[in-house]
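Changelog entry

Holo records now carry the ligand SMILES as an explicit input line rather than a separate metadata file. Below, a converted record for magnesium ion, shown in the new format.
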Amino acid sequence: MTTTSYAHRATAVAARAQDLSKVYGQGETQVVALNRVTVDFRQGEFTAIMGPSGSGKSTLMHCVAGLDSFTSGSVRIGDTELSTLKDKQLTQLRRDKIGFIFQAFNLLPTLTAMENITLPMDIAGRKADKEWVERVIDMIGLSGRLSHRPAQLSGGQQQRVAVARALASRPEIIFGDEPTGNLDSRSGAEVLGFLRNSVRELGQTVVMVTHDPVAASYADRVIFLADGSIVDEMLSPTADGVLDRMKAFDAKGRTS
Ligand SMILES: Nc1ncnc2c1ncn2[C@@H]1O[C@H](COP(=O)(O)OP(=O)(O)O)[C@@H](O)[C@H]1O
Ligand SMILES: [Mg+2]
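Structure line, unchanged by the conversion:
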């Protein structure tokens, strides 16, 4: 049997997993969370990762983002092979090259929106690319509210601040695990629109785990995971198309 490769050649790659496996536990309690996954995340592309609960979405994201170790295979961010890095170098790579957006917004309550956005760079002692940060701020759609504290902002506004914070250091790639999972559909749409614009207008690379077909439809492509393997890929997805595909997987699961 040949395994389908979801690697794309000849385009600049922001991150790549090759033959990536992650096994939890040993013996009878062993769980294969990822089973030889090969996937590329190209620069300037917005990818959604979908699949049933327990299919390995978070594990894939955490392994590619250098937040979790893996059992075999390789991961690279840009030209850097993660397995060659010592702990300190990995921490530095995560800080400099990777942006994160979480379901909980994780903003500091005592800082203003603007201070939250530049905080990671301030901590790292890095000088902000002013022009870039200004473009990010232009896009966030929070004019007049940047001096507000998180508690004075809606959920959607807070998550847009968190997205701007991830974008501010101009990372190689941004990862989000259900970044709109805590938001109503209107607030979710504001955040997703901002993410999509960051890809289209700034050339940012974004990888987002989601279970929502509407959220996935903002992406350039969707990869579907089942039992730790990539089982399908959809380009230029629509919400209806993604929903149909999910239903087809469910039906297959019931009959097999
Ligand atoms: N720390 C862990 N210890 C043992 N098993 C784990 C751990 N984390 C995840 N798993 C297992 O790995 C599989 C994939 O989990 P996960 O990546 O969280 O799936 P998803 O994000 O798609 O819901 C599941 O079977 C889960 O139970
Ligand atoms: Mg998960």
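Spot-checked after migration. The radius of gyration is 18 Å. The longest strand covers residues 13-24.
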